[in-house]
Design brief:
The complex is a heterodimer of chains A (about 190) and B (about 220). With about 190 residues, chain A is of the alpha+beta class. Chain A has 7 helices and 4 strands; from the N terminus they run ααααβααβββα. Chain A has 2 domains: about 100 residues, Phosphate transport system protein phou homolog 2, domain 2 (Methane Monooxygenase Hydroxylase, Chain G, domain 1), CATH 1.20.58.220; about 70 residues, Alpha-Beta Plaits (2-Layer Sandwich). The N and C termini of chain A lie far apart (about 45 Å). The mean pLDDT of chain A is about 85. Chain B is of the alpha+beta class and about 220 residues long. Chain B has 2 domains: about 110 residues, Phosphate transport system protein phou homolog 2, domain 2 (Methane Monooxygenase Hydroxylase, Chain G, domain 1, Up-down Bundle); about 70 residues, Alpha-Beta Plaits (2-Layer Sandwich), CATH 3.30.70. Chain B is about 55% helix and about 10% strand. In chain B, strands 1-4-2-3 form a 4-stranded antiparallel sheet. In chain B, helix 2 packs parallel to helix 4. Chain B starts with a helix and ends in a 7-residue tail after the last helix. The N terminus of chain B is likely disordered. Classes of the chains: A alpha+beta (about 190), B alpha+beta (about 220). Chains A and B meet through helix 1, helix 3 and helix 4 of A and helix 3, helix 5 and helix 6 of B.
Chain lengths: ~190, ~220
């Protein structure tokens, strides 16, 4: 594994782990089973990814490209990321079980200033076919895109050049105040940024 | 660790170790408050753990260890309170969901603790030397000195972001954590601030917080 690959891998794991924790709590906050199922899917994906990563580390150690400690570091990192993913799944599991949620739960979870949204980009939305870089969503709405789900494909922490497309499922984070504006834009009700 | 030099009474143990050893006193807090803290910690700690690895930063790693120990205490407290709160089967059922979340939050913090342990593996070079070299962004733990002009001024008044480019992720004040602090939050002497931003900006901010400079 080259340094570059190792760097990409670590950033990728960080983003996915953070996203899972976000999604899991959000599934409870918004009482949303779909989100909870998303967490389950993502957890399986991370499991696979971690298996690959661990094999890669062992292979590279065998070839002498990584020393034992380096390979061990990568294996440990994969294991810990899997642990976080499993824990996120356990949180989402609460949403999927048919147990009535304790009112305290919702109250506690809602008491944060940062909110998390999952929106589908409507065909009428002015956000579609525009690059994130030209939209300036963070400054215009106070919300920023942390992930996009396009069909089966996930784009994590999308860069400035990523274009939003019709039917993209967008995961955004930001201030409470920006929520309505962003929703209206994505659903095509609001035509101006 | 600067904050320890200032308070010799705390002894030689790292802070997180102390938190771990401290006897849990039963102070009646609401389940809600504890759960909010656990959720906040579990979100913050993931970011901090990977960041400490990315930036090969031992101070951040120590912060993660501290949070991990804090989480243990909270998980114990919430179990205690939940058991006392259940009066019948319905209560108990609904409370299990809360405990499941608390348990998951603790698992997350344990995993984060394991991640920062990787730093102590004797690696010839940090896993990601490239990132550290090339990125001009860094993350740093800063301590507000009582000599600093920053004391009792809000983040907005100090214009931290515009003057230094530094974003304050969190403030630790004694045992309390303030996550994503608001603009009107005032800094106090002894606060531990975790900031992300350009290296130069962090140095400038640090000098100011240490009381070495009069303003930003």
């Amino acid at each position: 594994m080259s340094e570059e690959e190792a760097e990409k891998m670590l950033l990728d794991l960080k983003e996915k782990a953070e996203l899972m924790v976000d999604l899991a709590y959000s599934s409870l906050i918004y009482n949303n089973k779909e989100l909870a199922e998303e967490v389950y899917e993502l957890e399986e994906h991370i499991d696979k990814l971690n298996d690959e990563l661990q094999k890669l580390a062992i292979e590279d150690a065998k070839k002498g490209e990584l020393n034992l400690n380096e390979a061990l570091a990568i294996i440990k990192l994969a294991t810990s990321t899997e642990m976080i993913a499993d824990a996120a799944r356990d949180i989402a599991d609460v949403q999927l079980r048919e147990i009535e949620l304790h009112p305290i739960l919702k109250e506690s979870l809602l008491e944060t200033d940062e909110i998390f949204l999952r929106v589908t980009i409507s065909p009428n939305s002015i956000l579609k076919n525009k690059k994130l870089g030209e939209l300036h969503l963070a400054s215009e709405t106070g919300m920023w895109v942390i992930a996009i789900k396009r069909g089966d494909k996930w784009i994590y922490d999308p860069g400035k050049d990523v274009c939003l497309k019709e039917n993209d499922v967008v995961f955004v984070k930001g201030n409470k105040e920006g929520k309505e504006h962003f929703l209206a834009l994505a659903e095509g009700r609001e035509k101006e940024l | 660790m600067k904050e320890m030099e200032k308070s010799p009474s705390r002894g030689k143990l790292p802070k997180w170790k102390e938190e771990e050893l401290e006897e849990v006193e039963y102070e009646p807090r609401s389940i809600k408050d504890i759960l909010i803290e656990m959720k906040n910690i579990s979100e913050l700690i993931v970011d901090l753990a990977y960041s400490s690895l990315l930036f090969d930063n031992k101070e951040l790693a120590e912060e993660v260890k501290y949070l991990e120990a804090r989480m243990d205490t909270l998980n114990y407290e919430i179990r205690l309170i939940a058991m006392m709160a259940a009066r019948n089967k319905r209560d108990a059922e609904r409370l299990t969901a809360i405990l499941q979340i608390a348990e998951a939050a603790e698992t997350i913090s344990d995993a984060a603790g394991d991640i920062v342990d990787i730093i102590s593996l004797k690696l010839d070079h940090p896993i990601l030397p490239r990132l550290i070299r090339e990125s001009d962004e860094a993350i740093k733990k800063l301590v507000v000195s009582d000599k600093s002009k920053a004391c009792n001024k809000s983040i907005a008044e100090l214009r931290v972001a515009s003057e230094t480019g530094v974003r304050i992720i969190t403030i630790r004040r004694g045992k309390k954590w303030i996550y994503a602090p608001k603009k009107d939050e005032k800094l106090r002497a002894g606060d531990i601030v975790i900031g992300v931003g350009p290296k130069e900006g962090l140095d400038k901010f640090n000098a100011f917080l240490e009381g070495k400079t009069e303003g930003l």
